[in-house]
Amino acid sequence: MAGPVETFDIIVVGAGPVGLAFAASLARSRLKVAVVERQSLDSLANPAFDGREIALTHASVRILRELGAWDAIPASDKSPLHGARVLNGSSPFSLSFDGPSGSGEPLGFLVPNCQIRDALFKIVYFQDHARLLCGNSVVNATNSEDEAVITLSDGRQLAARLLVAADSRLSAMRDLLGIGANIHPLGHSMLICRVRHERFHHQIAVEWFDHHQTIAMLPLMGGVSSLLLTLRSSEADRLFALDDELFLMELMNRCRGRLGEMTLASTRHAYPLVTTWAHKFSAPSAALIGDAAIGMHPVTAHGFNIGLSGQKQLAHKILTACRARRDIADPDMLGRYESRLRLSAAPLYHATNMLVGLYSSEHPAARLARHAGLRFAQHLPFVRHGISAMLRR
Ligand SMILES: Cc1cc2nc3c(=O)[nH]c(=O)nc-3n(C[C@H](O)[C@H](O)[C@H](O)COP(=O)(O)OP(=O)(O)OC[C@H]3O[C@@H](n4cnc5c(N)ncnc54)[C@H](O)[C@@H]3O)c2cc1C
After folding, report:
1. 67-88 pLDDT, tens per residue?
2. Does 288 sit in the ligand 1 pocket, CB within 6 Å?
3. Looking at domain 79-108+185-267+360-392, does it have CATH number 2.30.30.60?
């Protein structure tokens, strides 16, 4: 038989980087927060390397700094990104993005996802107002204008004025709230590993749209790069099944000597690519944040940046309501959160999907269009400077 219902002000489902950042953002309130996570406490406290090196904009660095997470990340794990080059097939031409000349200011920083998670976990773990309920998923939920009630896999029931889903792009919480989503499995997977290599990367990232593959080389500290190879999923599965030696040989062939001799410097990881856009980002007594709301294609490296900024907007609205002794789940307030996030994220989401369509097509017209597109952009300084400035904002 179910025990008594435990009551909170806010329940966050999912202790990924966005869910944790949201819980940390509420620290200055007296709100009673529960964070429900299906992974064990031990896995959360010691997040394993998952291959992802998150390219953070300056705005994201500022948010992490405000939360106290940025300084908790070791300096050796913050790789500055001084520029980026976009290549098309075997053409020697590249579209360049650089920081402002002479300032030495990077475009952004690459930080392992596990380090971001670790820093945010420690903040939430030591907060008095937040309670972590690990090793649990949500099996049932009801929501009304007055409250949301969830049932955990261990049978416990929790109620809150506001329920926040932060449980990834294939969010079960979103489904339980009855919110639909445009979910696009792309039929491609991204293989990721760190490699140590012969040639210097000069802290410049390379995004190379080649025939039937896309390779990104992200420059890390200490002569190491993170290599991201996007292929049709069947081809990615074949490559992933190879032993390390054969895998590396094929990787070097595919990179055509761009980084010189390479050795593996980490475990390998595979991500089948899926994009999602939830039909709504709010419901009575509920809201979606992070990938549960918007799951971006990683090619433009903006999923977490958008999630971090979105959680900040929602937390700010809640803290303002709290100070004014207003309802923290006021439907108008949640509606404003939704509209602002939709407006700010839609252009990048759709532009990214168009770019992916153009650059993964082998149609001769698409090849011609991407070649022309890169040259066109190179001759429009305001386009390049605009993108660089957006990253540094
Ligand atoms: C290969 C790759 C590279 C990327 N690179 C970048 C980049 O450079 N820059 C960038 O900004 N973004 C990048 N992203 C996107 C970024 O990783 C995501 O946007 C970010 O992880 C989203 O965080 P989240 O907390 O919303 O979700 P997640 O990281 O997916 O975390 C969700 C959490 O919810 C938990 N959970 C799931 N289901 C349940 C459940 N039913 N009950 C309880 N808990 C549950 C999970 O265990 C997990 O802890 C990349 C993504 C990929 C795949």
Report:
1. 999 999 999 999 999 998 888 8
2. no
3. no
